[in-house]
Fold each of these.
Amino acid sequence: MSKYTEDDLKIELENKEYEYGFYTDIESDTFPVGLNEDIVRAISKKKEEPEWMTDWRIEAFRAWEQMVEPEWANVHYEKPKFQDISYYSAPLKKAKYESLDEVDPELLETFKKLGISIDEQKMLSGVAVDIVMDSVSVATTFKKTLAEKGIIFCSISEAIKEHSELVRKYIGSVVPQKDNFYAALNSAVFSDGSFCYIPKGVRCPMELSTYFRINQAGTGQFERTLVIADEGSYVSYLEGCTAPSRDENQLHAAVVELIALDDAEIKYSTVQNWFPGNKEGKGGVYNFVTKRGLCEKNAKISWTQVETGSAVTWKYPSCILKGDNSVGEFYSIAVTNNYQQADTGTKMIHLGKNTKSTIISKGISAGKSQNSYRGLVQISSRADNARNFSQCDSLLMGNNCGAHTFPYIESKNPSAKIEHEATTSKIGEDQVFYCNQRGIPTEKAIALIVNGFSKEVLNKLPMEFAVEAQKLLEISLEGSVG
Amino acid sequence: MLSIKNLHAGIEDKDILKGINLEVKAGEVHAIMGPNGSGKSTLSAVIAGNENYEVTDGSVELDGEDLADLAPEERAHKGVFLSFQYPVEIPGVSVTNFMKTAINESRKAKGQEEMPANEMLKLIREKSELLEIDRKFLSRSLNEGFSGGEKKRNEIFQMAMLEPKLAILDETDSGLDIDALRIVANGVNKLKSENNAIIVITHYQRLLDYIVPDFVHVLYNGKIVKSGGKELAYELEEKGYDWIKAEN
Amino acid sequence: MELKEKLISSFMAFEERVDVDSDLHDVRTEAFKNFENKGFPTKKEEAWKYTSLNTILKNDFSVFPKKENAVEFSEVKKYFIHEIDTYKVVFVDGVFSSFLSSTTHDGLDVCLMSSALTKPKYKMVIDEYFNKVANKEESLTSLNTAFAYEGAYINIPRSKVVEKPIEIINFSTGTEAALLVQPRNLIIVGENAHVQIIERHQSLNDNPVLTNSVTEIFVQKRAIVDYYKIQNDNLEASLIDNTYIAQKEQSNASVHTFSFGGNLTRNNLNFYHQGEHIDSTLKGITIIEGKQHVDHYTLVQHATPNCESHQNYKGIFDDKSTGVFNGKIYVEKEAQKTDAFQQNNNILLSDKASINAKPQLEIFADDVKCSHGCTIGQLDEKAMFYMQSRGIPQKEAKALLMYAFSNEVIESIKIPAMKARITKIIAMKLGVNMGFDL
């Protein structure tokens, strides 16, 4: 009988090439490889940074030199050779554009392939976009509209120069320079990233969006994002990532800091689709990211992520619930296929009273991949009436992959309520047959079931991101299903 | 429309169907009755193409075409519909989304365009009214947390949406209270036409008060041992299956 | 002298005493090397993240008791399950007490590890089983292996249903200022055999005791083992219990751990599957207060298809007590159709009590049903109020709720006298004098 089996699907998946694996031929200004204090100073100088910033970087670099790369995560990879990486690469054109006409047509073509058009259409859809290619921010749209509301949305380099006081006050306040190995490295060498400030009481009228792309070979990308929502404000922030396919591994070590002051709310959504390596597990991006948010009184931070790319992912978007009544949320879908490895999850640190956190994590493993959830829920003795609900579900496809859950739960308060649930399952033959009987072919049935499995998280994404994420899920898992 | 000839089938070396012959014409309603373990559900699974069952001899033809080489979804595209005895849960997939996918896949297979959204909505509204289904129900995850009655009603709703040529209702009456049974039967009767056929598989005669069969067949030990009109069902109800067992 | 140093210097003396020519010499030496390299575990190790031995290790433990101590039956009567007839293997300060024991060689062996390790007739069994399922990498297990000499040796032949439960009891008299004891038990349950075992550690006065015990259990095809651990020692006694269970096809093994007493208790409970259709059960009730600390570290290694494991641990923590639950379910690629379930529920009664839980699933097979649930919460205030409004005083209402909370585990105790005993201990622990006929 002609039946499309899961095995057929697997074969198709393995042969499926990375859709975004193109390389943009743009002349770049790239630093020599290697890292030392001079390079750190040079980066700072190149970016015309004030002295305090240079000193801050040097401090981070000195700390980094003393640190060792962490090994506790459930991932195995060849350690990046930090002296073989170039720490700065920028498209060799004027790095800032006032209008689209000035933008290199080839760069525009890149954006088009990425599915991002920085043209009128996108403008109409009401998304302000900042694009970071390799290391430099190349376009920030909608700046004027935002400025009218007092919202600052620009590259971090620009913010360091133009909004020095704000950056100086908050950078490193949630993720200190010495927080961990990669955060220290990032603090020393970060080249660009996005900065966003929402003034008191302002509700940001549109989604703010950043796209990151690693283009140049042998470069690392170390972007730094800082989002500050002042008292009573609201912002929804989107972040998308892609990289061209290359044989060698590319390093991505970003730091994202969110600060939600009293009564503020930040919604931070990520669709990560860095090149995952080819089907033999060669190449791909090492994605070692530190993301953390701080909630003051009554504030709320919500992390939503769809992780389909990268060869190795190491990432725990976290919330420090410092203020009373603050709320932290983490919604995640992590898909691994072929030889991908993901160790991802969250930390919810409950410090204030009546703090609440929700964790919904959906892991989907296929091929020979390993997918781990690692999470910490910590209730301090002062956090009276803290509440947490966690749910971690894993779906396995095929018998060569693994799903792992490592939840850490630490409670020092008797009035806290913590619930944790986890399940692991596979796609049932009976489910597939049921779909078949209704006329739905196996491939489509699997797509349907996977989407259903991920629904609770997909629903948390802003509409247009959700569509993209759904498409990505299908691309990473279901071959030609569209 | 449906022609089953000398059908032998089983599961893991165990023979269950041992030579079934059955002819179903358009516009007819056939009831298949029989004691537990007589092979009723196996027959429906084999017609629908469940690959857990192996056909060892004989054939199943729909409008003269042998179904043997067709995958379950291809049979569905040709108009075979099975109302499951135990409908499967698919978490996170809403009834609406599931139906939309099923209808469009069938259309795609026939080289048709996808059904426009407004047309789809209209169809859903119309058919859900037919089965007295609350609209809220349609946005719930497929069969997840449904009561027994809701699951069966949902099966018939799907039948209404897909408008199959041949519908097989496998123990659709099990787990239904009398009101739900009436609604389901009423739905089925409205869907009945000159151009389609229905096979009702049941253990009890009760459902046949509502869906009146043209023919009744008694399945026992993998064979049809008796056929007759609707009065056969009453006879069975009265005398019990021991009567059949005693004769065979 | 630091304990580790003391152990190093004691090891040679020990080996000379027990016979350097023994076949076990190499096993002991290798184990000791591992301990010497790794030392006592510290909080830096993931497996010991929440439990520190530092304070306890500061005691000046004697490694060997200086003299033999005898205890009168009347002093210890209350620690036996006296309502029922049992086989008894009793040790006082690590030394076998024939006076208190009731062993047998009649159709089954319920006797001593020391004779099993030295007598030629046991050689084949020892070669086949001794130190074969214990984790050779784990430093405390290695330490025990290095000094392994005494403990219970139980060998149940094929198809034997042991009529009476077997009690393994370790008393420490406290005549030493501080004592380290390292019992080593070996239990082999033959094909289709059935046995019930109760294990208890009890110190008889307030001097500190540290017990580092290792028990290896081999459950052959279709055999059934019910194992109960009563941990209700006084507050100066600490226990590290390492239990390793290897199960063959269609066997059924259950371990119930009742942790009420003791200073620091660490239970390393490991199940390894070596055949299909195995059933493993791990259950526990922990009720502690003061500065007590109980750490349950469980592992179920699903290596074969069609096996089940069920874990259910309940914990109630008052005062400044701390609880740890680290439960790992590991499902290997071959272990299709595994059904693994784990549940851990905790209640914190005081501001200063804390609980750390780390339920882990590591799954490499796709057709499995695995789940874990973990809750940390309080007693239901509404239920409390409801009972109080019906005239039940607060203390009793609280006790009733806590008993109900633990009941799922109590219910599965298969020895009625044992169930009654545990219920009584819980009532005492909760400070109420009432029967719980729930």
Amino acid sequence: MENVLDVQNLSIEFPTETGVVRAVKNVSFQIKKGESLGIVGESGSGKSTVAFGLFNSVPDPGRISSGSVRFLDGRNFLKVNTEERRRFYWEHISMVFQASQNTLNPLLRIRRQVDDIAEAHQFNKKKLRQKAQSLFEMMYLDTDRVMNAYPHELSGGMKQRVSIGLALLLDPEIVVLDEPTTALDVISQGSVLKILNGIRKELNISLLFITHDISVISEVVDSVMVMYAGQVIERGPVNQVMSSPTHPYTLGLIRSIPPLVGDVKNTKGISGSAVQLDLLPKGCPFYSRCDMRMTKCSEIPPPWVTLDNNVSVACHLAKNEGGDKNDRTQEHFKTI
Amino acid sequence: MKWINRIIMAILTVFVVASLTFFLVRLMPGSPVQVMYLELIQKGIPANQAMNQVNIILNVIPNEPLFQQYIHWLGQIIHGDMGQSIQQTGVPVIRLIFNALPWTLITVAIGLLISFFIGVLLGVLSAFVRERWTSSLIDNIGSVAHAIPQFVTAVALLYIFSVLVHWFPSSGAYSIEVFPGFNGPFIMSFLYHMALPVFTYVLTGFGAWTLQMKASTVSVLKEDFMMAARLRGLKQNTIMGYLGSNSILPLFTGLMLSLGAMFGGSVFIEGTYAFPGIGNLLATAINTRDYPVMQGCFILTTATIIFANLIADFAYTKLDPRITD
Amino acid sequence: MRLVWKVLKRRPSRLVGVAFLLLFTLMAIFGNLIYSHALNVDPNNIYAAPSWKHILGTDYAGRDVWEQIVRGSTNVLWVAALAACFTMALGTIIGLAAGYLGRVVDAILMRITDLFLTIPSVALLLILAVTLGMSNMVVLALLLSLTSWGGLARAIRSMVLSFRERSFVEVSRGLGLGRWHILLHDILPNLMPFVWTHLMLAITGAIYGEVGLFFLGVVPFKANNWGVMMNFATGSSGAMYSTQSFMFLAAPILAIVLLQTGIVLCVDAVNELADPRLRSSH
């Protein structure tokens, strides 16, 4: 199947007083039509910056230093001029934001905000309103009330669903969802994810989830990509990564999920504090916090290794051949 | 219901202010009532007649108990009688005020609008400029302009534009050759005369708006919905509309509050330019200790401001959907 | 001290501001020591042009203008500082009380605050000045603060209301610490950066009101003040309309402008010094 999105070697820098910080380093990935990918990492891992990079709209003072972003049309989106970029947004790629509660203009009714989108992309206002209504209906919203409401008149979960509806308004090929459920309570989280899964199947669109909580998205994504300190350190089918994580960091992420049943004592955090991008070792970025570090880890950057379960990982431990490696991960699991 | 309450509160506030001025003037040592009464007696006017005259001018019968004086005075005020001027004998205070008020209202309103407009523009500019020194220059100009007292600006402008270069007249609201009314020459003459006062209001007023607008714009620019609007591919005009409406809105509450400061400033500005508005009236009354005029000016300007605030609050609920009822 | 210097040199405008402020403060402190004798009246030297003997020339009575500016600074700064302190005390106490002592106190105090905020403060100041009469500078400072505490009280109140809901206050409450302890140890320190910054603005407000009263000639007692100079220059002396006397008119104007500019340019430095969060962000 063709790639809806093809990102190659994307790097994003932030100049600071002490020097340039590379928030995203050589990130490459592809998403196929109808596929759903999750980018996982803790705060500061660069996962949200990647999302803004896709829009070629990195917040100030950051800038994209290298790489390419190609959608279906095949041209490098990073080279497209402002007006074309504006038209491209929302019609081909849209986004549901981290704090979607605040992404609606507080002074305008929802239908006005739908109209604004229609006007910007030269759609028929009446038709687009009907489209919005049917989307809101799919999301179990009281359509008439929502269309005539001001944002503050809606609850957090409702606003989130409105944002998702707006993101689907122009039938984009791909929707980026930046922590779409973090601000919601557990029940709304579940229903929002269920809705997203349904829509994805019905409309056959591609989704890109960005989250710090790997467990939340495990039900809705096909594959995951784990980021640490601006770099991808492991990626593969979600089942494989969840059941047998290879990189010690991924292992830590999964271990830190509290179980739904059982004792919370069994969960473990990752030792050490969050990464400081300007103080990275020459070798593996996770070196200082890794439980299984070796001497060469601080000096030699770990190479990419593709394992036989379709998982790729950047870790010196994964250098061994497939069978041997699996034993190691089994061992890790015994220690939990 | 809420608005009926608000209106009642406004009327009560005016009443409290009026009562305060009454007791302030009456209870001070050397009360003007006693002073005037004694003066009249000393001039050889019989006590009865003297008392009557004090009553006409100050709305108070001197030898009555204080509380009765107050009730009596209040009754007169409610009927629109604020006594007579001591200096301009026989002229009712209310007429002096109604002659003066329109001049002030027009100049203050125009000054406020222009300074608001300039301030908003500069504030947005300062929020948008990339170079830090430009934006900090705008901020500093804004805060310095705001901190310089109106009378200093007024005197400086008067000296430069009317004493040194004779571009603008130094006093009055229109020239003696024109006939007040709705006619071209009068309006032109009025505009000519009010240029310097309005300029002073603008120079001393725009700074505060610049600073407020900058702060407001900067905070709206950080809002998530601005980023969202951009990524939705909305047109630049629409996005600027989102930015503008959201950042100007908080300034509206300040707009009416600043009326108080501007009316206060009119004492200095109109005093300096001998512009026949309410500020000038108050300044003159204070210098000549014309108590009835002083009280009248004070009560009426306060009432004007209180009701302007009421209207502004009402308009604000129409502008901001987040505020209900 | 090192910190002060570090904060100041971050922006050139701050250095300029501090320089002006220091100049006037020195003038105010030492002015009366240098010019302890009475002002010289010299009828033969009316409206003299600036010279070495009279740096800024002389006025309509042949008195040295520079000397008057220096003498005036003592009065201007002393009253302004005093008034600003009164304003801070009044505004902070009323704001704290309204925000912390419950709904009834809050409602009453905020009514009063609103009243003071709507009344045009200059007009109120003038009426109070005329009716109460002012016998000395302390009374003048009190009057000035009486008409200018409203904005501060309101801001402090809303800050207290928001701090009350913050987690660090909740924690203290959970620990069983007393109301006063929380007010003094948790809430007040968080307000101080704002209070210090507002103090600077209160000084400019007080200078405005004070010099304005002298300018209008409402203050009954004699004092050396730039407002008095401006009053004479624009009024009785007729200096306004003769170009000869430019210095006599321009000197007090310049003095006020420079002083206010100095204070205003220092405000953001004070803000940064008082608020550790701002400092660390650089």
